[in-house]
Amino acid sequence: MEKALKLYQETNQKLKAFYLVMFLHGWDSSTEAPHDAMEYRSKQLGVLSEMYYRISTDPAYEQAIETLYQNKDQLDSVLSHEVVERRKEIVKTKKIPVEEYVKYQELMTQAYQVYVDAKRSSNYELYKPYLLKVIDFKKKYLQWVKTSDMKGYNIFLDEFESGFSIAEYDLFFNTLKERLVPFAKAVSKLKSNYNKSFTKKSFSVDKQRIFANYLRDVFCFDPNRTVVKESEHPFTTNNGTSDVRITTHYHADNLQSAIFSAIHEMGHGLYELQVSKELDDTMSGSGASMAMHESQSRMMENMIGRSDVFWQRHYPKLLELFPKELKNTSVDDFIKYVNTVSRGFIRTEADELTYALHIMVRYEMEKMIFNKNIDLETLPTVWNKLYKKYLGVTVPNDQVGILQDVHWSQGSFGYFPTYALGSAYAAQIYHAMSKDIDINQSINDENLRKIADWLKEHIHKYGSSKPPKEILKLATGEDFNPNYYVDYLIEKYSKLYQL
Amino acid sequence: MEKALKLYQETNQKLKAFYLVMFLHGWDSSTEAPHDAMEYRSKQLGVLSEMYYRISTDPAYEQAIETLYQNKDQLDSVLSHEVVERRKEIVKTKKIPVEEYVKYQELMTQAYQVYVDAKRSSNYELYKPYLLKVIDFKKKYLQWVKTSDMKGYNIFLDEFESGFSIAEYDLFFNTLKERLVPFAKAVSKLKSNYNKSFTKKSFSVDKQRIFANYLRDVFCFDPNRTVVKESEHPFTTNNGTSDVRITTHYHADNLQSAIFSAIHEMGHGLYELQVSKELDDTMSGSGASMAMHESQSRMMENMIGRSDVFWQRHYPKLLELFPKELKNTSVDDFIKYVNTVSRGFIRTEADELTYALHIMVRYEMEKMIFNKNIDLETLPTVWNKLYKKYLGVTVPNDQVGILQDVHWSQGSFGYFPTYALGSAYAAQIYHAMSKDIDINQSINDENLRKIADWLKEHIHKYGSSKPPKEILKLATGEDFNPNYYVDYLIEKYSKLYQL
């Protein structure tokens, strides 16, 4: 037992050392590396990946985890949770035939390339055979790994959000169907009345950078532990709690894009900054789950960053930077601008009100694919029908339809639902926080320290040392309840659209 | 034999994979990482270093090298050179008692910290006991590793510039003593007459960046394979030939500092960019030696970058960026400014004419320490005497005297001489190049492509697949001859100072 623990911890230190490589490589390749750097580097990464693989699948390590699992009652709660999760993965991995796994890796590389071409040319037929092969593998996977406790699509859902199954997601999406779909349809028919002239102006990227830097202070993004830079697609990455980095992307013709990208990523970043340092030496020193992470970014971006009180407080700074461009724009105009609802086809461009409905389309389709054996020939037709049904829009072509997301080409099923779940977590957490602190007052402070502190104490500090379900319950005092989310949206948009 | 070769190459691929980590970490920590990032990262680096150490000292790997060494006649010239060099290191390392090595590593950490404090407070006495311990270890080291072919200070010289011993360096420095010391003394008494008013102006850092970017094109610093950024101390780093990065450092009150830092580092960088891609899979895909590398940076910085013809060509661009600041400054004023000779105490601030004399002081002292058993109590006195003798200056205190360089505190003896040797290589190579191409004409071209091509063909392409001595002979048709260097300096400065 003692020997097993020592081996387990030593191996983990090795695995964590490799995270440094992936962290540095990922950051560098997205923000800095010259165009031709990748070929040489890819060989090195290949060698390092192989080393990582050998260490992580060393039979002695797996045996140590098994030993710890058998004695998990003697472990502290952090370790015991880790061991249970890690063993679940190992047991699964062992059930996949190695030759099938290798073939699947090759398929994913091909599928990605074909997907990119197919999207560019809006040619679903090109992509279809690869998507079907990916789905075929994933269906076989479900057969290999199923247990008496879990089978079908639930297996994927659990992999992305431990403890969440169709039961929880159906409850969530059915609430959306009942309450949000009709409301969103009504709102999206209304026109948002505000002076839009400034949206046609050009906004100096240098000045946008100054504003992003200003926001860094507001969102408590400690300069001694963070980096803010630029990349094509905004993202967050970190190495422990003292090196957290985000990127944003500036567009001179779109003042809000960089602002909300930065706030969203700082929401993710603040989570990683505030994980308890005591978890540094464990495997639990990072955010708890996909949806829990998304709850933090979306709370910052939407619930705080697009709120009335936030812009009452910070619009003057924006005005100071863009006095000419915003001369005839009132703070109310600006608030309406950043909260405009529009019926679109593209998930990544969706507004706060309709975002989850885009996800609902994907959730329903994934459920049909894996649990209902839907005829795969009909996928684009089903996609378009569901968009009509939930969002009230007619998808004009597959490029802005079923081809818009890369996820399925990479076998990521069960991932999408966490995006929407994150927003719902956020509303439930926000509601709980509002019982402890005056949130509007805190947003009106010089920075969001009080909110950050509350989130640290109730969410962030745990890292992934507990399952997301348990953290949500600890933080809010109740199980997941999607009504907070719908209540919040209806209240906010009723006010904005004077319904 | 075949098995040995396979093991050798596979192990090298692993070792090279770790270079990616060091490359990314080094770049990131100097240019980007937030202040608090290092603590967490240092644990990961420790684990990775240990893995690297285990791989590089694996007895099977060492046995493979021994097998290849015994059969080196059957290897191609690149491999055979590698194996000889690698074996030399292994044989040496095995002679050092492990416990002494460990103690020495600890000593270096302490010595560095004490050195920093001692320099700050100009307190040599504080530093002395640590320096003496470092020297004591290095003397024992010489006893452990000496062979019938090589002993004493020559061992250190050979470690930094393979094939160069006191015989070559004495020839070099004696030439400097005879010909350069009296000339430099004469020049440094003269005043450089030019309109200096612009040197007091402030030069926008943003515009300096634009000029650095312009120089990037001039020096053929391919944007698809390079990065130019900023750091406190300028440096060059690379990962293969397709990812070469330099930094410079901008000062608003010093127009030339960033320019010549950038050119110097691009000289190093161009070398790495132009190593033959065929060497990518070997251990010979980087510059040949310390001095050969320095020859490339100093040729670009001094012989080309500070030349008359270079500024006749590129001053107009500088003028375009700083029309007000340089209004009354002629190109001749500017050329005199960047070639001003001044008698100073500090090596890193020395001008082109006197730089090698600073090195000569250190070379003579190192020779005395290891081959003449000089009384170590007298080191600062000797330092000051030699500065008086060779540079004609009276050192006012140890801070700008013996405490100015970090090298000795880290046991780097034999390193300094390569700095000066590089300049001498550069002059010899430049002379050989001038027989093949019209250098002034090439400097006057839009960019330095012709010069870069010549250097690639005669120096760069070999990487470290041959010893520097052999590359120098291949490139110039003769053995090392320091007179080219002195001839060049006397001609250039006679003209500048109208002697």
Keywords for this entry:
Neurolysin, domain 3, globular, three-stranded mixed beta sheet, 2 domains, 20 helices, mainly alpha, homodimer, 499 residues
Oligomeric description of these chains: homodimer
CATH structural fold name of the largest domain in chain A = Neurolysin, domain 3
CATH architecture of the largest domain in chain A: Orthogonal Bundle
CATH class type of the largest domain in chain A: Mainly Alpha
Please bin the fraction of helical residues of chain A: 55-70%
Distance between the termini of chain A: 64 Å
**Taking Cα atoms only, what radius of gyration of chain A do you get, to the nearest Å?**
23 Å
Kindly report the spatial arrangement of strands forming the biggest sheet of chain A. Answer: 1-3-2
Series of H and E elements of chain A: HHHHHHHHHEEEHHHHHHHHHHH
Instruction: Describe the global form of chain A.
Output: globular
How confident is the prediction overall: mean pLDDT of chain A?
Answer: 96
Q: Unreliable runs of chain A, pLDDT <50, ≥5 residues?
A: none
Number of domains of chain A: 2
- Treating each run of at least 4 consecutive H or I residues as one helix, how many helices of chain A? 20
* Largest interface, C-beta closer than 8 angstroms, per-chain residues: A-B, 39 and 39 residues
- Beta-strand content estimate of chain A: under 5%
